[in-house]
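SAMPLE LOG
Freezer: B-3
Tube label: C17
Construct: single chain, 161 aa
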Amino acid sequence: MTHRFPDPNRVALYAGTFDPFTIGHASVVERALPLFDTIIIALGVNPHKVPWQPVEQRVADIEAVYASLPPGRVRVITYSDVLTVDLARQLGAGWLLRGVRSAKDFEYERDLADINRRLAGLETLLLYSLPEMAAISSSMVRELHSYGHDISAFLPRKFTE
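STRUCTURE (predicted):
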């Protein structure tokens, strides 16, 4: 059974693979929390891709970051085989939340936001990364790790405690 929220204008869906969930992702959530009653972090699962971290580990890690918040402020779910806008509608979310690190990201996100508005009437809130986090991406973190580098500076503190 899918849980719907009473006021979609106060619920945002933040979707991605988050493999791993970085301090850049956490920054987007932290800065969006004052704007919404609930942020749903939705981990997209693609059965055709081999993830770096198992989805269960990613869910547990992200839940640990937000465990001190009141219940319902941040929910972490997984999804597959559904468009993000359709998932947002199923969950009763009124907004899509996205982070933007660069002009290249902006172009992609603007086009995606336009399509999502046409498909489902959902607006997208784009939050620009803080300058000190603009170079941080999940793929960069995975690559650094593959070469034996310490990646703890790029992950939320709860992951490294």
